Amino acid sequence: MRFLHTADWQLGMTRHFLNGEAQPRYSAARRDAVAGLGELARRTDAEFVVVAGDVFEHNQLAPREVSQSLEAMRAIGVPVYLLPGNHDPLDASSVYTSALFVAECPDNVVVLDRAGVHDVRPGLQIVAAPWRSKAPTTDLVGDVLADLPADGVTRVVVGHGGVDILDPGKDKPSLIRLAPVEAALARGAVHYVALGDKHSRMKVGSSGRVWYSGSPEVTNYDDIESDPGHVLVVDIDEADPRREVRVSSERVGRWRFVTLRRSVDNDRDVADLDINLDLLDDKERTVVRLALTGSLTVTDKAALDACLDKYSRLFAALTLWERHTEIAVLPADGEFDDLGIGGFAAAAVDELVATARSDADDADDARAALGLLLRLVDRGSAA
After folding, report:
1. Which of 34, 102, 107, 169 has a CA 20 to 30 Å removed from the CA of 322?
2. pTM for this one?
Protein backbone atom coordinates (compact mmCIF):
# COMPACT_ATOMS: atom_id res chain seq x y z
CA MET A 1 0.00 0.00 0.00
CA ARG A 2 1.31 3.42 -0.96
CA PHE A 3 0.08 6.91 -0.10
CA LEU A 4 1.28 10.51 -0.10
CA HIS A 5 1.97 12.38 3.13
CA THR A 6 1.85 16.17 2.96
CA ALA A 7 0.96 19.01 5.35
CA ASP A 8 0.95 22.75 5.95
CA TRP A 9 -0.47 23.82 2.62
CA GLN A 10 -1.68 27.01 4.34
CA LEU A 11 -3.70 28.00 1.31
CA GLY A 12 -4.52 31.70 1.43
CA MET A 13 -1.12 32.62 2.91
CA THR A 14 0.19 36.09 2.17
CA ARG A 15 3.73 37.36 2.54
CA HIS A 16 3.97 41.12 3.11
CA PHE A 17 7.44 41.42 1.62
CA LEU A 18 6.48 40.14 -1.85
CA ASN A 19 6.53 42.65 -4.70
CA GLY A 20 3.15 43.70 -6.19
CA GLU A 21 2.22 40.93 -8.60
CA ALA A 22 4.48 38.37 -6.90
CA GLN A 23 1.89 37.69 -4.18
CA PRO A 24 -0.77 36.40 -6.62
CA ARG A 25 1.88 34.25 -8.32
CA TYR A 26 2.97 32.85 -4.95
CA SER A 27 -0.62 32.03 -4.01
CA ALA A 28 -1.14 30.36 -7.37
CA ALA A 29 2.06 28.34 -6.90
CA ARG A 30 0.76 26.99 -3.59
CA ARG A 31 -2.46 25.88 -5.27
CA ASP A 32 -0.52 24.46 -8.21
CA ALA A 33 1.57 22.37 -5.80
CA VAL A 34 -1.68 20.92 -4.46
CA ALA A 35 -3.18 20.21 -7.86
CA GLY A 36 0.15 18.70 -8.96
CA LEU A 37 -0.22 15.97 -6.35
CA GLY A 38 -2.60 14.30 -8.77
CA GLU A 39 0.18 13.65 -11.28
CA LEU A 40 2.47 12.48 -8.46
CA ALA A 41 -0.22 10.13 -7.15
CA ARG A 42 -0.71 8.66 -10.62
CA ARG A 43 3.00 8.31 -11.26
CA THR A 44 3.67 6.61 -7.93
CA ASP A 45 0.37 4.67 -7.90
CA ALA A 46 -0.56 6.24 -4.55
CA GLU A 47 -3.89 5.11 -3.13
CA PHE A 48 -4.70 8.32 -1.25
CA VAL A 49 -3.27 11.54 0.20
CA VAL A 50 -3.17 12.60 3.87
CA VAL A 51 -2.76 16.28 4.75
CA ALA A 52 -1.51 16.52 8.33
CA GLY A 53 -2.99 19.85 9.36
CA ASP A 54 -3.01 23.52 8.38
CA VAL A 55 -4.65 22.98 5.02
CA PHE A 56 -5.66 26.66 5.12
CA GLU A 57 -3.81 29.68 6.47
CA HIS A 58 -6.79 30.55 8.67
CA ASN A 59 -10.54 30.10 8.88
CA GLN A 60 -11.51 33.56 7.56
CA LEU A 61 -10.81 33.14 3.87
CA ALA A 62 -12.23 34.97 0.87
CA PRO A 63 -14.81 32.85 -0.98
CA ARG A 64 -12.64 32.87 -4.10
CA GLU A 65 -9.73 31.37 -2.13
CA VAL A 66 -11.92 28.56 -0.78
CA SER A 67 -13.37 27.74 -4.20
CA GLN A 68 -9.99 27.75 -5.94
CA SER A 69 -8.47 25.59 -3.20
CA LEU A 70 -11.24 23.01 -3.45
CA GLU A 71 -10.86 22.91 -7.22
CA ALA A 72 -7.12 22.21 -6.77
CA MET A 73 -8.00 19.32 -4.44
CA ARG A 74 -10.52 17.99 -6.94
CA ALA A 75 -7.72 17.82 -9.52
CA ILE A 76 -5.77 15.35 -7.35
CA GLY A 77 -8.28 12.66 -8.27
CA VAL A 78 -7.54 10.15 -5.49
CA PRO A 79 -9.05 10.44 -1.99
CA VAL A 80 -7.63 13.35 0.03
CA TYR A 81 -7.94 13.32 3.83
CA LEU A 82 -7.72 16.77 5.45
CA LEU A 83 -6.79 17.23 9.11
CA PRO A 84 -7.72 20.55 10.78
CA GLY A 85 -4.64 22.05 12.47
CA ASN A 86 -3.78 25.06 14.58
CA HIS A 87 -4.24 27.51 11.69
CA ASP A 88 -7.65 26.12 10.68
CA PRO A 89 -9.10 24.39 13.75
CA LEU A 90 -12.63 23.00 13.99
CA ASP A 91 -13.91 25.90 16.08
CA ALA A 92 -17.14 27.87 15.70
CA SER A 93 -15.78 29.78 12.69
CA SER A 94 -14.24 26.76 10.95
CA VAL A 95 -13.85 26.95 7.20
CA TYR A 96 -14.66 23.23 7.06
CA THR A 97 -18.21 23.79 8.29
CA SER A 98 -18.88 26.91 6.22
CA ALA A 99 -21.75 26.75 3.75
CA LEU A 100 -19.39 27.36 0.82
CA PHE A 101 -16.96 24.57 1.77
CA VAL A 102 -19.78 22.08 2.38
CA ALA A 103 -21.49 22.97 -0.91
CA GLU A 104 -18.36 22.80 -3.08
CA CYS A 105 -16.29 20.09 -1.35
CA PRO A 106 -15.34 17.51 -4.02
CA ASP A 107 -16.32 13.86 -3.58
CA ASN A 108 -12.65 12.82 -3.23
CA VAL A 109 -12.06 15.12 -0.22
CA VAL A 110 -12.74 13.92 3.33
CA VAL A 111 -12.34 16.15 6.39
CA LEU A 112 -10.98 14.23 9.39
CA ASP A 113 -13.36 16.05 11.71
CA ARG A 114 -13.61 13.35 14.35
CA ALA A 115 -10.86 12.19 16.71
CA GLY A 116 -10.13 8.48 16.38
CA VAL A 117 -10.46 5.82 13.72
CA HIS A 118 -11.65 6.43 10.15
CA ASP A 119 -12.06 3.44 7.82
CA VAL A 120 -10.33 3.78 4.46
CA ARG A 121 -11.10 0.25 3.29
CA PRO A 122 -11.17 -3.19 4.91
CA GLY A 123 -7.92 -3.71 6.80
CA LEU A 124 -6.81 -0.06 6.56
CA GLN A 125 -7.64 2.80 8.90
CA ILE A 126 -6.60 6.41 9.47
CA VAL A 127 -6.35 7.48 13.11
CA ALA A 128 -7.00 11.23 13.23
CA ALA A 129 -6.19 13.84 15.87
CA PRO A 130 -7.91 17.06 14.65
CA TRP A 131 -7.53 20.40 16.41
CA ARG A 132 -10.74 21.96 17.76
CA SER A 133 -9.11 25.12 19.06
CA LYS A 134 -5.84 26.97 18.75
CA ALA A 135 -4.80 25.93 22.26
CA PRO A 136 -5.47 22.25 23.02
CA THR A 137 -5.09 21.26 26.66
CA THR A 138 -3.92 17.69 25.97
CA ASP A 139 -1.67 15.68 23.69
CA LEU A 140 -4.21 15.09 20.91
CA VAL A 141 -2.20 12.31 19.27
CA GLY A 142 -1.63 10.55 22.58
CA ASP A 143 -5.36 10.70 23.27
CA VAL A 144 -6.27 8.76 20.10
CA LEU A 145 -3.54 6.15 20.59
CA ALA A 146 -4.50 5.14 24.10
CA ASP A 147 -6.91 2.24 23.41
CA LEU A 148 -5.91 1.05 19.96
CA PRO A 149 -5.50 -2.73 19.69
CA ALA A 150 -2.76 -4.58 17.81
CA ASP A 151 -5.26 -6.61 15.76
CA GLY A 152 -3.68 -6.86 12.32
CA VAL A 153 -5.33 -3.73 10.90
CA THR A 154 -2.94 -1.35 9.15
CA ARG A 155 -3.20 2.08 10.75
CA VAL A 156 -1.85 5.47 9.73
CA VAL A 157 -1.92 8.19 12.41
CA VAL A 158 -2.44 11.75 11.16
CA GLY A 159 -1.53 14.44 13.68
CA HIS A 160 -0.34 18.02 13.95
CA GLY A 161 1.89 19.93 16.34
CA GLY A 162 5.30 19.95 17.97
CA VAL A 163 6.96 16.82 19.38
CA ASP A 164 8.41 16.98 22.86
CA ILE A 165 11.93 15.91 21.86
CA LEU A 166 12.12 18.78 19.35
CA ASP A 167 10.22 21.59 21.05
CA PRO A 168 11.94 23.65 23.77
CA GLY A 169 8.60 24.39 25.48
CA LYS A 170 8.34 20.97 27.05
CA ASP A 171 5.61 22.02 29.48
CA LYS A 172 3.11 22.83 26.71
CA PRO A 173 0.12 20.52 27.21
CA SER A 174 -0.47 20.20 23.46
CA LEU A 175 2.98 18.74 22.70
CA ILE A 176 3.00 15.30 21.12
CA ARG A 177 4.81 12.93 23.48
CA LEU A 178 7.06 10.66 21.43
CA ALA A 179 7.28 7.84 23.97
CA PRO A 180 3.60 6.79 23.71
CA VAL A 181 3.79 7.09 19.92
CA GLU A 182 6.79 4.78 19.74
CA ALA A 183 5.14 2.37 22.19
CA ALA A 184 2.06 2.12 19.94
CA LEU A 185 4.32 1.53 16.95
CA ALA A 186 6.33 -1.12 18.80
CA ARG A 187 3.26 -3.13 19.77
CA GLY A 188 1.85 -2.99 16.24
CA ALA A 189 -1.26 -0.94 17.00
CA VAL A 190 -0.20 1.71 14.43
CA HIS A 191 2.35 1.58 11.65
CA TYR A 192 3.09 5.10 10.44
CA VAL A 193 2.65 8.57 11.98
CA ALA A 194 2.13 11.44 9.52
CA LEU A 195 2.79 14.78 11.20
CA GLY A 196 2.38 18.41 10.23
CA ASP A 197 3.47 21.71 11.81
CA LYS A 198 7.19 21.78 10.98
CA HIS A 199 7.60 23.23 7.50
CA SER A 200 10.78 21.27 6.75
CA ARG A 201 11.00 17.57 5.94
CA MET A 202 12.11 15.72 9.06
CA LYS A 203 12.26 12.22 10.51
CA VAL A 204 11.40 12.04 14.21
CA GLY A 205 12.91 9.44 16.56
CA SER A 206 14.63 6.26 15.48
CA SER A 207 11.76 4.06 14.28
CA GLY A 208 11.71 5.45 10.73
CA ARG A 209 7.90 5.56 10.98
CA VAL A 210 7.36 9.09 12.34
CA TRP A 211 7.80 11.96 9.89
CA TYR A 212 7.06 15.60 9.24
CA SER A 213 6.54 16.05 5.51
CA GLY A 214 7.14 19.79 5.60
CA SER A 215 5.25 22.28 3.45
CA PRO A 216 5.12 21.50 -0.29
CA GLU A 217 5.99 25.14 -1.03
CA VAL A 218 8.40 27.26 1.03
CA THR A 219 6.89 29.63 3.61
CA ASN A 220 9.95 31.18 5.27
CA TYR A 221 13.63 31.92 4.82
CA ASP A 222 16.22 29.15 4.67
CA ASP A 223 17.68 29.93 8.10
CA ILE A 224 14.26 28.92 9.52
CA GLU A 225 13.10 26.32 6.99
CA SER A 226 16.06 24.19 6.00
CA ASP A 227 14.29 21.61 3.84
CA PRO A 228 10.82 22.62 2.56
CA GLY A 229 9.18 21.85 -0.76
CA HIS A 230 8.68 18.07 -0.45
CA VAL A 231 5.91 15.47 -0.41
CA LEU A 232 6.58 12.09 1.20
CA VAL A 233 5.77 8.86 -0.60
CA VAL A 234 5.05 6.20 2.03
CA ASP A 235 5.01 2.45 1.35
CA ILE A 236 3.62 0.04 3.92
CA ASP A 237 3.97 -3.69 3.17
CA GLU A 238 0.58 -5.05 4.18
CA ALA A 239 1.70 -8.62 3.41
CA ASP A 240 4.37 -8.37 6.13
CA PRO A 241 3.09 -8.95 9.69
CA ARG A 242 5.49 -6.22 10.86
CA ARG A 243 4.17 -3.80 8.18
CA GLU A 244 7.60 -2.70 7.03
CA VAL A 245 7.66 0.97 6.02
CA ARG A 246 9.67 2.73 3.35
CA VAL A 247 9.61 6.53 3.02
CA SER A 248 10.92 8.48 0.05
CA SER A 249 10.37 12.08 -0.94
CA GLU A 250 9.51 14.02 -4.07
CA ARG A 251 10.44 17.65 -4.50
CA VAL A 252 7.44 19.68 -5.66
CA GLY A 253 8.21 23.23 -4.48
CA ARG A 254 9.46 25.81 -6.98
CA TRP A 255 9.93 28.95 -4.85
CA ARG A 256 12.99 29.82 -2.75
CA PHE A 257 13.36 32.23 0.18
CA VAL A 258 17.11 32.84 0.47
CA THR A 259 19.15 34.67 3.12
CA LEU A 260 22.52 36.07 2.05
CA ARG A 261 25.02 37.45 4.56
CA ARG A 262 27.78 39.61 3.07
CA SER A 263 30.46 42.09 4.16
CA VAL A 264 30.67 45.14 1.93
CA ASP A 265 33.67 47.40 2.53
CA ASN A 266 34.64 48.58 -0.95
CA ASP A 267 33.59 48.68 -4.58
CA ARG A 268 34.93 45.15 -5.17
CA ASP A 269 32.63 43.76 -2.46
CA VAL A 270 29.69 45.56 -4.06
CA ALA A 271 30.63 44.08 -7.45
CA ASP A 272 30.87 40.59 -5.90
CA LEU A 273 27.40 41.00 -4.41
CA ASP A 274 26.11 42.01 -7.82
CA ILE A 275 27.60 38.83 -9.32
CA ASN A 276 26.13 36.64 -6.56
CA LEU A 277 22.66 38.07 -7.12
CA ASP A 278 22.97 37.76 -10.87
CA LEU A 279 23.86 34.05 -10.58
CA LEU A 280 20.66 33.21 -8.69
CA ASP A 281 18.34 31.74 -11.28
CA ASP A 282 14.53 31.73 -11.49
CA LYS A 283 14.44 35.21 -10.01
CA GLU A 284 10.67 35.59 -10.39
CA ARG A 285 10.22 32.78 -7.86
CA THR A 286 13.08 33.75 -5.56
CA VAL A 287 12.89 35.97 -2.49
CA VAL A 288 16.20 37.33 -1.17
CA ARG A 289 16.86 38.75 2.28
CA LEU A 290 20.23 40.47 2.66
CA ALA A 291 22.24 40.89 5.85
CA LEU A 292 24.95 43.41 4.97
CA THR A 293 27.68 44.78 7.20
CA GLY A 294 30.65 47.01 6.48
CA SER A 295 31.89 50.54 5.89
CA LEU A 296 31.54 52.27 2.53
CA THR A 297 32.36 55.58 0.96
CA VAL A 298 29.46 57.62 -0.33
CA THR A 299 30.38 56.60 -3.88
CA ASP A 300 30.41 52.90 -3.04
CA LYS A 301 27.17 53.20 -1.06
CA ALA A 302 25.56 54.80 -4.11
CA ALA A 303 26.78 51.84 -6.19
CA LEU A 304 25.31 49.45 -3.62
CA ASP A 305 21.97 51.27 -3.69
CA ALA A 306 21.91 51.09 -7.48
CA CYS A 307 22.66 47.36 -7.33
CA LEU A 308 19.86 46.70 -4.84
CA ASP A 309 17.44 48.83 -6.81
CA LYS A 310 18.16 46.85 -9.96
CA TYR A 311 17.64 43.43 -8.39
CA SER A 312 14.58 44.51 -6.42
CA ARG A 313 12.89 44.79 -9.82
CA LEU A 314 14.01 41.31 -10.89
CA PHE A 315 13.38 39.15 -7.82
CA ALA A 316 9.97 38.35 -6.36
CA ALA A 317 11.31 40.37 -3.44
CA LEU A 318 14.66 41.67 -2.27
CA THR A 319 14.83 43.16 1.22
CA LEU A 320 17.40 44.16 3.79
CA TRP A 321 17.31 42.22 7.06
CA GLU A 322 17.37 45.32 9.20
CA ARG A 323 18.33 43.62 12.48
CA HIS A 324 21.44 42.15 10.84
CA THR A 325 22.38 45.01 8.53
CA GLU A 326 24.77 47.77 9.57
CA ILE A 327 26.64 49.83 7.00
CA ALA A 328 28.65 52.88 8.00
CA VAL A 329 28.88 55.51 5.27
CA LEU A 330 31.73 58.03 5.45
CA PRO A 331 32.91 60.38 2.71
CA ALA A 332 36.47 59.60 1.61
CA ASP A 333 39.10 62.29 1.31
CA GLY A 334 38.79 64.06 -2.03
CA GLU A 335 35.66 62.12 -2.98
CA PHE A 336 33.81 65.31 -3.98
CA ASP A 337 36.70 67.33 -5.39
CA ASP A 338 35.99 66.64 -9.07
CA LEU A 339 32.30 67.51 -9.32
CA GLY A 340 33.00 70.58 -11.44
CA ILE A 341 31.11 72.98 -9.20
CA GLY A 342 32.23 76.08 -7.38
CA GLY A 343 31.07 79.04 -5.33
CA PHE A 344 28.16 78.56 -2.99
CA ALA A 345 27.48 75.04 -4.33
CA ALA A 346 31.01 73.91 -3.50
CA ALA A 347 30.72 75.42 -0.03
CA ALA A 348 27.42 73.58 0.49
CA VAL A 349 29.05 70.28 -0.51
CA ASP A 350 31.91 70.90 1.93
CA GLU A 351 29.37 71.54 4.67
CA LEU A 352 27.52 68.31 3.81
CA VAL A 353 30.78 66.34 3.90
CA ALA A 354 31.64 67.75 7.31
CA THR A 355 28.19 66.91 8.65
CA ALA A 356 28.32 63.41 7.15
CA ARG A 357 31.59 62.72 8.96
CA SER A 358 30.21 63.93 12.29
CA ASP A 359 27.95 62.38 14.90
CA ALA A 360 25.33 65.06 14.39
CA ASP A 361 21.65 64.13 14.34
CA ASP A 362 21.43 65.06 10.67
CA ALA A 363 24.54 63.08 9.61
CA ASP A 364 22.44 60.38 7.92
CA ASP A 365 20.54 63.05 5.99
CA ALA A 366 23.82 64.57 4.85
CA ARG A 367 25.08 61.18 3.63
CA ALA A 368 21.84 60.60 1.77
CA ALA A 369 22.10 64.04 0.16
CA LEU A 370 25.68 63.37 -0.95
CA GLY A 371 24.63 60.03 -2.41
CA LEU A 372 21.83 61.70 -4.35
CA LEU A 373 24.27 64.35 -5.57
CA LEU A 374 26.59 61.67 -6.94
CA ARG A 375 23.74 59.94 -8.75
CA LEU A 376 22.60 63.23 -10.30
CA VAL A 377 26.13 64.01 -11.42
CA ASP A 378 26.45 60.54 -12.97
CA ARG A 379 23.15 60.98 -14.82
CA GLY A 380 24.27 64.37 -16.06
CA SER A 381 27.52 62.90 -17.33
CA ALA A 382 25.61 60.10 -19.07
CA ALA A 383 23.41 62.65 -20.81
Report:
1. 169
2. 0.86
